[in-house]
Design brief:
The protein is about 55% helix and about 0% strand. It is mainly α. The N terminus is likely disordered.
Amino acid sequence: MSENSAAPGTPPGGGVSSAGAPTAPGPRPEPIRFFGTTWVGHDGGYGLRRVGVAAGSLAAAAAACLVLRFAYQGLEIAEVGGFVGVLVIAMFSICSAIAFRKTWEGFGARPKDPAREDNLRGLKSIGFIGSLLAYFVRSLTEAPGEKLRRAEYERARVQFERRRSTRTGNPAARRTSGRKRPKRG
C-alpha cells in the first residue's frame, strides 16, 4: 500500500478517475478479486458480490467433490487395491485441510515467507477443495481478505495524513525555540 500506486503519468497529488472525476490524493485501496474496491464503502453491489462468491465457491467445491468421486470410482473399476484408494483419500483430505488453513491465514496476514508460499502452491492446488471452502466460509462474513486490506489501507491513510500535515506551511517561516538564526556573512 503506497501513495505511488497510481498508473505512470498520473499526478501524485491525485488524478482523474475513469469516470472523469478527480481522485483524492493519497493511498489507493488495493482491489480484491471479484470485489474490486467496492469493499471500501460496501457499495457497487458489494452484498450481491458476497452472495455470489459464497454460492460460487460452494458450488465449485461440490462439483470438485463430484469429480473426485468419479476419479475414485475409476480407481475401483481399475481394481488397483484398497491401499491405493486409502492413499488417494488421505492425500486429498490432508492437502485440502492444509489448503484451507493456508488460505484462511492468507485472509488475515501477509505471508512472512513468500518463497515458502510458492513451494506450497502445488499442495494447495491438490487441496483446492479446502481453498474453495475457505472462500465460502469467509465470504459469509466479509469479502475474503477485506479485514487485512482495510487495516493496511487505514494505516496507509493515517501515515499519509501524518506526513502531509507535517509538510504544510512554509518551513522557512517557522522558528525553533524563539531564537533568531545568525546571518551568514
